[in-house]
Structure formats: structure tokens, C-alpha cells
Amino acid sequence: MLDTQRLPASFYETLQQSLRDALAAEGLDAVVADHHDDVAYLTGFFHHPNERPAVVFVPQDGPTLLLVPELEREYAQAQHAAATLVAYPEFPGLQPPMSYLGAAAPSFRGRIGHSGGLSVERLDQIRAAFPEATLVRSEVVMHSRYVKRPEEVALHQEAARITDIMLVAGRALVEEAIAAGGELPSEAELAAHITTVGTSTMYASHAEVVVVSFLAGGLVYSGANSARPHALPSGHRLRPGETFMLSLGCAVGGRFVEGERTFILGEPSADQRRYYEVVRQAQQVGGEALRPGLPCAEANRICLDVVRDAGLAHYLRHRQGHGIGVGMHEAPWLSDGDDTPLAAGMVVSNEPGIYIPGHAGYRISDSMLITEDGARPFTAYPRGLDDIVIPL
């Protein structure tokens, strides 16, 4: 059994000091963050987001503060949250929650950075809590999340191992049904089985699991349903001749990985071969293009040009991919409009797909670690046509 998934206090000490260095470079005296992913990233406190705010305040000088509702105080302590806890009684309460944060740093003056996602209501509360401060929009926390530290890379790698196990388990359930001569599983049954395998594997492998809202599992869709890129599993049963997609992932230590494969039930038709091979080639070319310094938009163009050059541009529905970290989907975006240069240590998805209405969708995804001279996939399930055809 492996040790705890939780990162040590030294990780957060180093991370917070690096953030302070970034604040100084931007001319900021502090940063405030209320998104649950930012809270987890900066302090190690993972929680179920709801109407009660949990907020991190990192000043240039002084301790990091973590504002939590009183009912979360013991949970934050149990997770060894790397911050000084400031609790408020309840929400909405007799006074705004942010006022307790201001009371914990009553003499603060200066420029406070905040993300563009902070709500208007909370922004007003922070202004009232720090009347001598100036609030400045900044993505300094998001940018600090871009490049993963070695401890995070190890968590991503373990998440990939479990994701590959789930892909194997999903295929195996279908093959067992074929061998038994009975009906094939439904999308919902297949999704439930994969989720059970993923979570049970995780708990069997780790002494302490960091629980997040999505721990293991994913989307399962077949036939025409798979032509809707994010369709939820239905009661539709897999049928001979159909394609079906396993869009899976999990989080270890709150660090995500996704791995997706498209399977074909029985001898593929000429169209199925063509569609699959175009996507496989796009994914290969897209992965080989990833390297430090390449703008995200250019990576996206290189990848999707394979589909366009094959005459299938009208079946494209989305970008090449996105960043992955404490969020399954996070910046930077491998998409038109994002010129962020890739950097060693970033983790991104490489997941081109095409979607043919009334027929099926075809997508292959691997989570990729940007290295010093290219990129490598975390997930390892095979991608060749022969590897994804399931004989009947």
C-alpha cells in the first residue's frame, strides 16, 4: 500500500514562496482566491464547494490565511491545511464572511490581486473588508498552476496508471458479455462498472485518498450518442457494429489525468476505418508537435490540420485539448485564441475528435507531460486500429 496522497507541508511552503515572488514581479502585495481548485492548490484543503465561501489570502508579508466556515474548521485541520485558519460562524450570517478575513489582517494596505472569476458579490465584500487596499484583476494563481512540480507529476502518473486500468476493465466487461452470448452492457452499466474498478483500485493502492468531487470514472457513449462530445451515459445498450467511446479519468492527490479511447464492435466498415485512422493520425501528429515554446494555438492548428486536410473539417467540434492539474479542464487551452507558449512541466490533454451526426464520434485522448525537448503521454493504452477493434 502506498503512502498518503497528500503532499507534505514543505511542498506548500515552497509553492507559496514562489507565488510571493510572482506577486512581487506583478507589483502586487497580496492575492485572494476563492475557487475551490485554487484553495486546494495553495493550501491542500479539498472541500465540496457550496454557498459557504472558502478563501485563501496570501500576502507578501505575513502568514497565508484560509477563511472557512466554522463547520469546515476541523476538516481543514484534519487535512493539515497549509495556512492560518480564520473561521466565520455561518452563511450568510450576521456579517459578511469576508469581514472575518479583513479582521484577521486589519492593517493591510496595498494591491490585492484576484482572478476574473471572482463574483461581484464577493468582490464587494473584499473591498469592504480591506478598505485601504486596491483590488487588481490578475491570473497570477492560475499561471502558477501551469507548470507542475515533481511531486505533482508523480500524482499525475499514478492517476494515469489507474485510468489505464479502467480502460482495460471497460473493454473486458464488453468482451465477457460477448463470450457469454448475452446482451451487451448499457452505457450506464459500463460507466458504473468502470467507476467501481477505478475507485476500488485507488483505495486498495493508497493509505489515504484525497477525495475530490470526481474521483474516478467518466463518460461512456455508443453509436449515435457518441456523436455528442459530452453526452452523459444513457440506458442504450451497445450493439454489434457500433463504435463506443470510453472517456475516462481520475484524480490522485487531487491531480487529474484523462484517457479516452474509441472502440469498434466487430469488423470495422470502410467509413469506420477512415474516420478512426484520421483521428489517430491527428492525435499522433498533435502529440509529436508539443514542445516548450510552441504557442498553444499553433499546437492546435498543427493537430487539427490533419483532420482538415483529410476533408473532414465539417465534423470537428472542439479544440485539440486543454491544461490539466487540480482541475480536469484548466488553462492553458490548446485552442485558437490562446497563444500561451508551452513550457516544460505543463500537463495538457491531446484529444482531437470528429463527430458524425447519426453515426458516431471518434476521439483519442492522452494526458501529456511537456518535457524539455517534447512531450510524453502519461496514459499508455494502445491506440492502433487493431488494438481497439473488439471481435464478435
UniProtKB/TrEMBL annotation:
Keywords: Aminopeptidase, Hydrolase, Protease. SUPFAM superfamilies: Creatinase/aminopeptidase (SSF55920), Creatinase/prolidase N-terminal domain (SSF53092). The keyword Hydrolase applies. It comes from the Bacteria. It holds the Pfam family Peptidase_M24. One of its GO terms (molecular function) is aminopeptidase activity. Residues 155-372 form the Peptidase M24 domain. The keyword Ribosomal protein does not apply. Residues 17-139 form the Creatinase N-terminal domain. This is Xaa-Pro aminopeptidase. It comes from Asanoa siamensis.
